[in-house]
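A brief tutorial aside. Many learners find it easier to grasp structure tokens once they have seen a single protein encoded end to end. The record that follows does exactly this for Rhodanese domain-containing protein. Read the sequence first, then the structure, and try to relate runs of similar tokens to stretches of the chain.
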Amino acid sequence: MTISKVSTLVSSSWLRHQIQSISRSANVSSHLRVLDTSWMPGDKSDSYREYYQQGHIPTALFFDLAKMSHAEKDSAIAFPIPDSNAFQDYVEDLGISNHTHIVAYDRFNSRTSFRTWFLFRLFGHNQVSVLDGGLRKWISDGNHITTEENDVEPGEFDVNFQPHLLKDYKTMVENVKTNAAQVLDARGAKGYHKGHIPGAKSIPYDSLFNEDGTMQTPVQLKKLFDDAGVDLTSEITSSCLQGLTACGLMAAAHILGKENVPLYNGSFAEWAALSNPDMISQTAS
């Protein structure tokens, strides 16, 4: 079966039309899965109960990123990559198969949506998009939410792990010496100036978005990359503090035609914990 390429972002009007189609044709539902990824890292509350059950987009299921991110004891990596088998089992329980188009959204600032976008691509599933502007834009466009929860039939999802989309600490240390890849830093200016990976280029995550939470136009995104001195025709690796907002930079690059930007999953949290002071650059603000 031929699977057409999907957009990095989809609009609320596009999603509303797809959901309406699902309600008219039962066999469409297996081809689209809307995932509510609402989660506040560090918040000990039950995201399923506190966010999803309070109201979500119709047909959406809850995607528990916390379940996918169990930090290991004494590890500086805040959000480790899940085990392939565990990921496969979890998404199959959500009725996801290899032909399913996934649309991820959240109710905050889209960082968990982009993390979800990255994880599916890491496990070989490119049929994944992010709802532009998330739940906030969905509601502001006049669409309703529901507390109804739907049952789904299990899917059949074969993992095809893409190791080239991940970089580890050792590789990043070597890159400081070789400058083989440009390193992006999605943290805000304050964090970046206090300390960053040598040579890293600053593109703050928040600069990617308009006031309504939607992503800027490709022309505006290209200017952000150009102003940061990023050459999109060359190798790039994305980073942030803990491996979440970096995924937004990866998605922005994807919109601009840069298909495969790896993530340094440990990001600056791991870098600062493992590196000597001479491997942490500071910039006057």
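Self-check: The two ends are 53 Å apart (CA to CA). If you spotted this yourself, you are ready for the next section.
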